[in-house]
Predict the 3D structure of the following.
Amino acid sequence: MGLIRIRTEIPGPKSRALMRRRDAAVPRGLAHSVPVFAASADGVCVTDVDGNVYLDFAGGIGVMNVGHGAPSVIAALREQAERFAHVGFAVLPYESYISLAERLAALSPGAFPKKTLFVNSGAEAIENAIKIARHATGRPGVLCFEDGFHGRTLLALSVTSKVAPYKLGFGPFVSDVLRVPYAYCYRCAYRAEYPSCEFTCVDQIEDQFKRHADPRTIAAVVVEPVLGEGGFVVPPRGYLSRLAALCRRHGIILIVDEVQTGFGRTGRLFACEHDDVEPDLLVTAKSLAAGMPLAAVIGRAELMDGPVEGGLGGTYGGNPLACAAAHAVLDLFESGELLRRSEAIGSRIEAHARLWARDCPLVGDIRRRGAMVGVELVTNHDTRAPAKHETEAIVRLACERGVILIAAGTYGNVVRFLTPLTISDDELDEGLKVLSACFVAATSQLAAR
């Protein structure tokens, strides 16, 4: 017997009532992927306020890699809350911040001295990483990538690529930002083919330095090792190491944004490990603390020590409850089983996606690294016209049939998978069976157009 239980129309009456209250009390700009309200969650299952049970293939946008309500995480939170919930590390330090900083420095790539700063969100971590890079180099510029996403604060939004909805009406943005194409092979900006291209997308950056920005003005390159919101774009092996070499050549600090890729999503603790890249600064958040607000900048000690005392910080960064949760998460990853499970999950999803591609003309490209799987949908394989409406239809149908799913991509046409890494084969297969039917229904809609 499956876990999905749909008892009402979707959304149900209680969710509809809450949505009316939400519309009256919450700004319109805060959007929702699905129209139902959560009541409880356990493992990979979420129950809404109407009693409908769903399989969660979104994971709070990649936050719940260890699953909802992991017992060891709950126990760690309870134990810490009974001692103290907050004192402010900048006022009254505590050991768990230090031990977590030590632990992350040891686990992150790079055989050199490292230090760790804790903040609240991925965007805040990106802001601080760029501040640290600017301070270390005395340079103002930042190089970033088309289709990249780094957050919604002003500096993070300045290095984010997608205009609507993220940047629409919020300018002007920070100057001294140079943006170049990512290694998006399915939509290569240079109409090249890998591997014969030999990473034209990296080599062209040198041309940008000749035409648009002196590399001596660039403090940092900010890059996602796999694009997240930009469509789960997986670059070819060697791309990141080629980019790291370019940074070294010009004295530019390499900031790797592992906010969505980190903590096992790609089969390694950090995705840059697939290319044996050792970032100068590594940014992580999301699944670091299993739903608690915690993000980190982990970097070379000499860079992290650059700003003066008081130059870095924040009221809630490294909150003791979040640190306790993060320690429990790292304990769960220690055996390596979750990393092995990530690869098995991704392989299983990819196998189903290949079957969809055989029978569904919408499937244009399938991309995977570990359990990070993106299926890009197009209405025409020759023009690669994005199938945005069909993607939205699949997400809607999936919710109605008991699977919480979200899309991604600059064109909103990529189905992405962010299941907890604790999902069983039976749970995964149940959700994929639902999605198979959703792809068939979307294909029928395309044929009827």
